[in-house]
Design brief:
298 residues; 5-stranded parallel beta sheet; 9% strand; globular
């Protein structure tokens, strides 16, 4: 089924994505020390006086992400403290943290700061690489450093597949059809199985969490139903593959970004999450990891 009236709009989107995802260099992010300085400046009132301590505390309490992570930190500490936990994050630009204006490593950096805020409880290895497709990740799983990290891991976090979808766009954008995505989806499923098999062969006891896709164009092109269908069907494949494996889990993300009515969770490229978006991803990941940890310890 060929996209009919929406072909022109979709083609423009595709071209923009290809330029951003494959051929452009990342925008230079604001230095972290500048961000910290800006935050310090924002903590003064219009007269240049520091904010009242009670007011500052109240403002912090109004931040639902901060509240959630603070609460979950206590539960996470209780779960992780009794073990020496090694977490390996592998995959594409979402694991690398592209779009995080704080240059703090995206969701992996948020998890690290949250869990290890008061005491080093968990060691994180981040092997995210911008542009990686599932086939390329399979090749990287043969690298000595990644193999050794997985062999010692207790948890493996994966983001992979968005660039597989983008490759279909890139190769067929002048004549797109849903059949092309369905055909590639079958190959993606096979490669996902290879990824899970490879990890389990290296460490059969590790927990594997596959992190789902979101539709970055939902905010501006909500009427293009085909985009939602592609994201939903590929997420379904990911969930099916993860659930075939012992200690294999799928973490959905699409609802976080779809339901962001008054918050904008994407970075300046309108494709990758910004720091707030990565905070929301970290929140969801922490929820799932803690839930499974508690269930396994029952």
């Amino acid at each position: 089924m060929i996209f009919i009236k929406r072909t022109f709009i979709l083609s423009i989107i595709i071209i923009s994505i290809i330029v951003l995802a494959f051929f452009s260099t990342p925008k230079k992010q604001k230095p972290l020390n500048k961000i910290i300085e800006d935050e310090r400046m924002s903590e003064t009132d219009s007269d240049g006086e520091p904010l009242d301590e009670e007011l500052e505390t109240a403002m912090m309490k109004e931040d639902p992400v901060r509240d959630f992570i603070s609460d979950q930190l206590k539960r996470a500490a209780n779960f992780f403290f009794t073990n020496e936990i090694n977490v390996v994050a592998i995959g594409d630009s979402l694991t690398e943290g592209v779009g995080d204006e704080t240059e703090n490593g995206g969701y992996v950096g948020v998890l690290d700061e949250t869990i290890n805020e008061e005491k080093q409880l968990v060691h994180f290895d981040n092997f995210g690489k911008r542009g990686n497709r599932s086939g390329q990740l399979i090749e990287r799983l043969g690298e000595r450093e990644i193999k050794r990290a997985i062999e010692k891991s207790h948890i493996v976090l994966i983001t992979i597949g968005a660039n597989d979808i983008m490759q279909v766009f890139k190769d067929n954008f002048t004549d797109l059809s849903l059949d092309q995505f369905t055909s590639e989806q079958i190959k993606y499923e096979q490669r996902l199985e290879t990824i899970f098999d490879t990890i389990k062969n290296l460490n059969e006891d590790t927990e594997i969490y596959l992190i789902g896709f979101y539709n970055p164009f939902k905010r501006y092109f909500s009427d293009i139903e085909e985009l939602d269908y592609i994201v939903e069907s590929w997420n379904t494949i990911g969930a099916d593959v993860a659930n075939r494996y012992e200690k294999g889990y799928f973490i959905p993300m699409v609802d976080i970004f779809d339901e962001a009515e008054n918050e904008f969770y994407l970075s300046g490229d309108n494709f990758h999450p910004n720091h707030t978006g990565y905070e929301m991803m970290a929140e969801r990941i922490l929820q799932f990891v803690i839930h499974e940890g508690e269930r396994n310890n029952e």
